[in-house]
Amino acid sequence: MDFNVTIRLAGQADWQAIIDIYNQGIEDGCNAFQQLLTVEGHRHWLELHNRVEYAIFVAEVDGTVVGWCSLSPYRIERLAFRRTGEIVYYFDRVFRGKGIGSLLVTHAVGKAPLYGLGTLLAFLLDTNTVSAHLLEKTGFERWGHFQRVADFDGRICGQFVYGKILAQ
């Protein structure tokens, strides 16, 4: 890596960068959203990651956010899942494949117990082999495969579920 990466908790000032990077993932077909997001339209999700119950971590290079990773609730309305979280991550196109993903995911996994999480799940399109490799590299295992659940205007694909147990 030819640059220094800083990882920190995201704040409201980072929301636009987070959404911009998320939208790159949508444009590149890495996400099941098919319309671009806005800060206002995604405000509830952003506010949920208040650094207390759940968090978003950002990776910065030279003061610019180049990636983010969130720890989110999994089926928040069902109390039995309260120690299970979902991990999501996206990276600026220019910085993909440069090792930032491993740093950021490893950092978030290490912080997950501070948020009361003992198990993490990741959901990704089965066509996203780069993300599958990142998860496997950081100790996640493939726990399931939902076949033919996503339809991108005739391009049908499935969804993998990856998991990692952090504590018994």
Short synopsis of the structure:
The chain is an alpha+beta fold. It has helices at 15-27, 43-48, 100-111, 129-137; strands at 6-9, 55-61, 64-73, 84-91, 119-125, 141-152, 155-165. It has a seven-stranded mixed beta sheet with strand order 1-2-3-4-5-7-6.
- CATH architectural label of the domain at 6-122: 3-Layer(aba) Sandwich
Number of strands: 7
Mean pLDDT: 93
CATH topology of the domain at 6-122: Aminopeptidase
Query: How far is it from the N-terminal to the C-terminal residue, by CA?
Result: 35 Å
The name of the CATH superfamily of the domain at 6-122 reads: Gcn5-related N-acetyltransferase (GNAT)
Name of the CATH class of the domain at 6-122: Alpha Beta
Silhouette:
globular
Percent in helix: 10-25%
Please give the count of helices.
4
Q: What is the oligomer described by this structure? A: single chain
- Contiguous uncertain segments of 5+ residues: none
User: SSE order, as H and E?
Assistant: EHHEEEHEHEE
Task: Classify the secondary structure makeup into a structural class.
Answer: alpha+beta
Major sheet: order of its strands? 1-2-3-4-5-7-6
Q: Strand portion, in percent?
A: 35-45%
Rounded to the nearest angstrom, the radius of gyration is 15 Å
The main β sheet shows up as: 7 strands, mixed
